[in-house]
Amino acid sequence: MIAVEKRGDQYQVIVQIGAKYRGSFNALAFGEIKPNIGSLKDGRLDLVYHRESGLSEGEPVPLWTLH
Question: pTM score, two decimals?
């Protein structure tokens, strides 16, 4: 994970997942706390939560791909 920022009443989480991943954002599955919105471009995953995600900078993000 690169960064966690609070912006107003939202939390933005930025994750580097690697440029080798060629799937879409919709093919990603998250842990118990799912983002409200998100986007994926060039290995950078931008997630927005409407409540505290419980994630901290430097820790792994629970993330899987759907087949």
Answer: 0.79
